[in-house]
Amino acid sequence: MDQIELYKDFRIRAYEDWSGQWLAEAKKPFDTHAEYIATPSGHPTPQAAIAFIKQMIDSPSTTIKAPKMIQ
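^ thats the sequence. predicted structure below, dont judge the formating
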């Protein structure tokens, strides 16, 4: 059975896959252009999957900026 939790404007949903591992996904529920966050691998419990997503939400951005063009 899915488990849903709200955290910092994100809706986190944990769900069990076919192998019995738990995955989680998160997005802002009312933002149609919001980024989608998902666990990269399975976890043994829904709480562990949700905790992993929370760490991803709290971590600083790892976006790499494009190099500047020299004119």
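The first strand starts at residue 3 and ends at 7.
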